[in-house]
Amino acid sequence: MTTPNSIKKEIVKFYKSLMGNVVASLPAISKETMKNGPKLTHEQQLSLCVEVMIELRFPRRFQDWVLTCVKIVSYSIVVNREPSVPFLAAKGLRQGDPISYFLFAIVMKYLSRSLKGFQKDKEYKYHHRCSKLGITHLSFADDLLLFARGDIPYVTQLQQCLNQFYRASRLQANQTKSFIYYGGVTQVVKDEMQQIFGYSRGELPVKYLEVPLSTKKMSFAQWQPLIEKTVARISSWTAKKLSYAGKIQLVQSVMFGIQAYWSQLFLIPSKFIKIIEAYCRSYVWSGYNVITRRSLVTWEKMCTPMSAGGLNLINLKLWNMAVAAKNH
């Protein structure tokens, strides 16, 4: 198939076959064809990094430093406790190299700028929770979260940015690991989006980075993992005979973990704060992870500063309220 007319007929035939079909019944793209298809060479990847750095106006000297680190990559193997003669790598940086994360951030800047272009488009509709801040995406080392109003035209615009990014970098979303999550969208729209974009449908609530995400108020079952983790941390030390000072240090560590992570994200209900504090208080005075009423000093007193006669433990409720006030 080499003539323009035959190619046109094949394209028309393919798109006609899509009408009235669901994704599962459509012909699948050959993975071997994709695998053996065009890919960016190492030099092309470096060229893309340079283009982005130039666009971001990095100094010329800095660009040279980055290219030197990428091009002149050598390794040495320890044999009989002595390093061997360094040898050059065949494909430059490997995953895990300290600078690889920086290069990833530079390349992802290309996609970020494309998505931020929606801020200039007055016709584009944000996700209703993201419109005030103009948020279209959150990019992490391994994940990319995209947000849009649940209408096909706006989701299509996001997909077009991904396609443009793929053509420039050959980095593509893995459809087997990518999901679309809906909130307040009809079943008809859900089916249409799944047929058009091919991503699997995710169901809320869902866990992300060990934190439950939901469009509704979190239920008791969704808060249960926080209590279970607290009890598990304490249970791992109940068999060990710790002094009161050791128990206080363990409880402080447990409370700090909650304060540093969960309290930054949610307004924790008072009911669950009291349960967590009850487990910690009981462990301090009894040495077991079973809630008891045995307490020589009130928990409020233990949370006061040492200068006031307390043990300087974290008051979860006050910390949670302070963080919530800061974030809002």
Characterization of this structure:
The chain is mainly alpha-helical. The chain has 2 domains: 42-172, no CATH class; 220-327, no CATH class. Helices cover 51% and strands 8% of the residues. The protein is built from 13 helices and 10 strands. It has helices at 4-18, 31-35, 42-55, 60-71, 98-116, 152-169, 187-197, 220-238, 244-260, 262-265, 270-286, 299-302, 316-327; strands at 74-75, 78-79, 82-83, 87-88, 137-139, 144-146, 179-181, 200-202, 206-208, 211-213. The protein has a two-stranded antiparallel sheet with strand order 1-4. Strands 2-3 form a two-stranded antiparallel ribbon. Strand 9 and strand 10 (211-213) form a beta hairpin. Helix 3 (42-55) packs antiparallel against helix 4 (60-71), helix 3 (42-55) crosses helix 5 and helix 5 (98-116) packs across helix 6 (152-169). The radius of gyration is 27 Å and the shape is extended. It starts with a helix and ends with a helix. The mean pLDDT is 77. It comes from Nicotiana tabacum. InterPro entries: DNA/RNA_pol_sf (IPR043502), RT_dom (IPR000477). It holds the Pfam family RVT_1. Residues 1-201 form the Reverse transcriptase domain. This is Reverse transcriptase domain-containing protein.
